[in-house]
Amino acid sequence: MDAxxxxxxxxxxxxxxxxxxxxxxxITTVSNVLAIFSAILLGQLMDRRGRLLPFQITxxxxxxGSFFTAISGGFLSLLGARTVVTLGTGPEGSVxxxxxxxxxxxxxxxxxxxxxxxxxxxxxxxxxxxxxxVVVTGGFNWRYVFFIGIFPAILILVAxxxxxxxxxFVEMDRIRREAKSESASSDIVDVKKANHDPVxxxxxxxxxxxxxxxxxxxxxxxGVFFSILLYATEYLTVAKGLSYGASLVVVGTGSTASIAGYxxxxxxxxxxxxxxTTIIFGLLGGVALFFLATSNGYGNILLSxxxxxxxxxxxxxxxxxxxxxxxxxxARGAGQSLNFASQSAGYAIWxxxxxxxxxVIGWHNGFLIVEVIPLIISSLSLFAIPRVKPxxxxxxxxx
Length: 399
What we know:
It is a single chain. By secondary structure, the protein is mainly alpha-helical. The protein has one domain: MFS general substrate transporter like domains (Growth Hormone, Chain: A). Helix content is 79%, strand content 0%. The chain contains 16 helices and no strands. The mean pLDDT is 84.
């Protein structure tokens, strides 16, 4: 919820520290650039030492960063706090999705990943409610919101201490140790490639096209979503003329509606394929964004924003599962880390790109160029990768 808190509270943080939108964008850029390296390093750790240790590290970093955000005193301390948060959240999704993908069979891995990602809209909804109750209704300082957000993170960390290692990783680790033996064999790991560097494998001939597509899609789509989520209240109050309270209602309604998008797309993806589902809902999301950019009036704004959230939630529930299942076990951690590192690249680039563009050509044209067009391009990029049948076992997709 921390990222949602930060975006929702930007209209309060700006005057508190006398910051500009570009300075907020700089904070997100610097912190997410560092998160790229965090994601890659933890991806290496996942494929070399197991999934569990990174599973714990990400939540520890998140909790520490959220606490220091609450007590920050200016630009530099806020930058440091947000950097620690993103060092945890950058690779968090890759670790969790790999764990879920490898611990469920073909009938449930996509559905389980979709249900895992329901945490995103649920978190946004809860964060919006908490922010409204604490800041708007209660009249308390914005810092209390971050203090409240620490408690769920601690509970999640405690729960993760009981998690078990992926059996697919255990098998891969055995093969690596036996790789020099002529008797080494496995149905789930390519023995000849078992000890190759996982990151290097991503750009070998059998995985290169997949990896390049992941980089394009995740950078563009995630950059669009993050910049909209980050600046939603600012956009709605400044560009659309809504009050802060009304903007929270729009954001909260959209995040609540997006829960339906996650659920619907999860089951559609299991039926027709997660690649196809992602493309369809990505294009619909671009249309909804166009109507948001061109709409006026509270009802139209509420409807178009909610539709965008529903359609993008549908993307979120399918593309993470798609990218996890299309990589082999020997490089799945690195592959998902490339996915989430690319997302961090989008997070780093898009807020600054949006505010810089808006500063030159205004919110309307800036929104169309920086948000609508890239989302459509990202969806079309998925035509470059082969179809993954949702009913295939992981080893039938790649070993």
